[in-house]
Specification:
- This protein is an alpha/beta fold.
- Helices cover 30% and strands 23% of the residues.
- The strands form 7 sheets. A 9-stranded mixed sheet has the order 2-1-11-10-12-13-14-15-16, with helices on both faces.
- The chain binds ligand 6R9.
- Ligand 6R9 is lined by residues 206, 250-252, 324-328, 346-351, 371, 431, 433, 445, 448, 454, 457, 459.
Length: 566
Amino acid sequence: MSNIGSYEERIENFDWSISEEELGYKEGDVINIGWYCSDRICAQGKGDRPALLWENSTGEEKSYTYDDLRVCSNGIGAFLRSLGLKEGDRICLFMDRIPELYIGLLGILKIGAIAQPLFSAFGDESLFVRLENAGTSAVITQRKHASKLHKILDRLPDLKHIIIVDYDETRPLKEKEVAFSMDARRQDQLEIFPTRAESPSLLHYTSGTTGMPKGVQHVHYSLISQYLTAKWVLDITEDDIYWCTADPGWVTGTSYGIIAPWALGVTQVVLDSGFSAENWYRFIQKYRVTVWYSAPTAIRSLMKAGEEIVKQFDLSCLRHLVSVGEPLNAEAVTWSEKVFGLPFLDSYWQTETGSIMITNFPGMKIKPGSMGKTFPGIVGTVVDPQTYEPLQEPGRIGLIAFRPGWPAMMRTYWKNEETYQGKFKNGWYMPGDRARIDPQGYFWFIGRDDDVINTAGHLVSPFEVESVLLEHPAVAESAVVSKPDEINMEVVKAFVTLKPGFAVSEELELEIMNFIRKKLSSLAMPQEIEYVDSLPKTRSGKIMRRLLHAKEWGEEIGDTSTLEND
Ligand code: 6R9
């Protein structure tokens, strides 16, 4: 079974009402993602179908049917209400990839509250800025992650509840903590809050070059895009076993790791454990995964593990592979074709777009190394960086630009409407990436148009890392850029000047690295620190990251006329 029609066929007379009709939604209706992902599938008589097959690093297994999703998310919704939480409140999910994370999101949405997923590897400072900005009322978490919250609790006056999903008597509850067991709190009925198309649903934080992370605000209507893109690009059918390897702390893990698959009624599998090629292949073989949505860093890591290991497993179940998050190099596409008999198809989108925008649409001729073409209904081009007019000549590099108005587009940046407005130029939404379009209309990714570092598919703000570096007692000044990396594409590199009285040493280096890892996350931790006597600055005193970046990447340095110390 497959949903694929030809690209041309899909584009002709395309209208998002195709998705609305399939979902039985009409303008003005109540639309609640939590309901669509559980109750609706049960109402179709499919409550007994497996919705989630889960396994962790110790081999523990759990499974949930669609009816389990329904009653467990009802239970979560009712419990949140019993704490006085209600529509519009921001409720953070801060957990490993355990079932409570996935089903908890539905429970939050069912009461009309706003779900704020945060990556469980975040340290206290990363958490603090995001919880403070959102004015979050409650955090649903595990015992092992709660300590990070206690460190910052006195600076978060809005935070009223820390909900512990794995409470046991061995450790007493601390300030603001309350215990909740999802499996014990199943509830058949829940009055679902009547959210409408424009009611807020999710708040995902993303990194920018300057300033603190921005809260990307989505609405329940995003479902219309997420459902149809998953159906046509990921080609999910009800007979599939679907595996999205992204963590729901990031947008791929929610749009295509919770919302779209469950709105489509498919069985999805989740592996809550670290990466190893062997373990991944074993997992695919065991659960007979058919559709696999992953990322270039993972594919490059599998490539590194080699072809021999692939042969030890029966992966004949796989039928469709899609990638997202970073540039998918042509070698990765040809490698996957060779070893799995299937190419990875690229897809391009971002937290702000909410759903897939550009893709190698199944059935279309694939050009390895290209991101493909715009999804039906998406008007996209590349524009001149000065005039924001579309570049007419094929092959010229410009800024990617989309006509606003697709259903899953963010509605604003939380408490930052000004920055949101700044994302629009000449009537286009500007995602901040550079590309070129070839004569056949295929997009080729060139790079980001800002200093944000994309390491292993995760965006890291150099500004955030620099700010925390400055909090370290030994650091006088810092500049953070990316440097090339074989597997992760880019990793974080810090240039640092030390304060008088501090000397370079191995201990200090480790201490600085750990300082960042604990406060921000392992992703943001510099892989290399270079100590310098001074940093290149503009005459107005701004650090010129561009110069340091060019040096790392062996690129032309360009115009340095504004440089202070040249
Ligand atoms: C979904 C997601 C978005 C940024 C985006 C771009 C980069 C995403 C890509 C890609 C090259 C692709 N990006 N997909 N670059 N090829 N297929 O990743 O969201 O975390 O917000 O990142 O990632 O730079 O603007 P997000």
